[in-house]
Amino acid sequence: MTHFLVNDDNPDGHQLEDVLAMVQSDLVKRAALIADDERQEARKVLANDISIMAMLSECVALAEESTTLLNRAFGPSRAGQPRIGSGG
Q: What are phi and psi of 66, to 5 degrees?
């Protein structure tokens, strides 16, 4: 069972790309808060956050591609009816 994503037990969950985009948005806000901090530790955290944001951008694009593929092949998802897999 997932905690964040849509499934039979969590019909009000989020799509993967939406969760990843929320995390990315939080990182952008955090990066803005430390952007002017010249300490070495802050510079390293900022550099790490920027790298993570780039990776998240790639992950968002992959998740969107999967959603597009599923929608095109099987139509929009409906509660209680998995489009692929066993659903259990």
A: -65, -45
